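User: For a benchmark we're assembling, each entry needs the component sequences followed by a predicted structure for the full assembly. Here are entry 17's components. Please fill in the structure.
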Amino acid sequence: MSAAAIELSGLSYAYPDGTPALRGVNLHIAHGEAVAVVGANGAGKSTLLLHLNGLLMPSGGEVRIGGLAVTRATLAQVRRSVGFVFQDADDQLFMPTVQDDVAFGPSNLGLPALDVEAWVRAALEAVGATHLAKRAPYRLSGGEKRAVAIAGVLAMEPSILVLDEPSSGLDSAARRRLIDLLQSIRQTRVIATHDLDLVLEVCGRVLVMHDGQVLADGSPNTLFADSGLLQRCHLEPPPSGPSFRGCT
Amino acid sequence: MTRLASALDDLRTLDSLASRDTILAHRDPRAKLATTLAFIVTVASFDRYRVGALLPLALYPIALAALGDIPSRLLLRALWLASPFAVLVGIFNPLLDRATMLSLAGVELSAGWVSFTAILLRFALTASAALVLVASTGMQPLCAALTRLGVPRVFTVQLLFLYRYLFVLAGEASRMATARSLRAGDHSRMSPTVYASLLGHLLLRAFERARRVHGAMLARGFDGELRHADSWRWRRSDSLFTAGWGAFFAWVRIVDLPAAIGALLAGAAR
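Assistant: Structure for entry 17:
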């Protein structure tokens, strides 16, 4: 196993109209770390995440996943390692039933049908959604959709889990189940979010992004206590106060 | 736009019915697909003025809907929503083909009205059979069955994408129509300018959303092929199902059953 799960060197990206979204981001995330990416809207969080499994390719610099450079030639291997949960679960769920949707990823890995079934069962169990297996995804509640979207990614057994705004639009019960789930996962987690309380419970490290750059990198306790930094990045301190209660 | 969204919602509900455990759900999708294709070909092969001879074929969609436990209300609503297309196809027949063809209880019917009725009947038969097929099988297994029957994969994948993105488009259209109507006040009718703007925005929003859906598929290893973990096995009952219905279609095609029954009853009355 390589030393770094994720390594970004001088990562830059500009939108087709030339607007820069990322400006020379350097980053090193170790295996098993739970890292939050926070920042105001337009800071570059989602753009950064989309580079981690090659959905966007850098304009400059390099992305390495488990030591493997992300290029068009390595996309299949990279996507096998990096599971991506999208902000809007409706973008991710497109098969007729939950079971079919969760099986979509493992089937693409070329696994035998029996293995696919076993992986799907395990993933649905992990998110507590076994009872939804035969349901149509578009009939589920927001929290159920999010759980199934995560199951669809977990079913591919990735070593890195990337989540974009996982708690947006969830009620308090669904949010609590999500936090418990994120705490129970052992994989490397990279979570872009505005939910700083979730960060305190799940993540041991925070990257604060501003204007396409990583402005600060440290523990939630330290960074959330820095009112100057939060103000500069248009963030508010978490309602429950800056003290880390997470597991990693 | 709301009408379209409602029609698509019905189609999606029909699709979701396929996951239920019914007698019809146990038939191999290839058997159902081949039989329905044979049914459609049989219906299309009738002369355009033959109405009565088509009637016995209604047994096929009715029997399948019963075996698949498919709610008739849902089927009828889907047929009703799609019916304007059939009406549009045949609406000019009564105007163009005015020669008297038959007389019913003293009322003379032109050939145009007869062919128009035949078009509506054919539409009802073929569309209901197709809807029952989707409701008892599901779109994904149907496309997999098409592939297994030799249809090029590129075509079946495109068909599935079309099906998927149809809902994306309808969802966006429905949200935009709702947003407009909430702020339309007394102006319930849409001006051409607003209509053009809505269409433009619809295209852009649907494109963006379709891009995100495609991104989500790529992120889970999609490589241009939709794999389906099916456990199909062609059984003897599938052969019997296909052969039985095939024989029935051939019989109805060769023998004009309503005419034969009519002649029989007339003979008995004499």
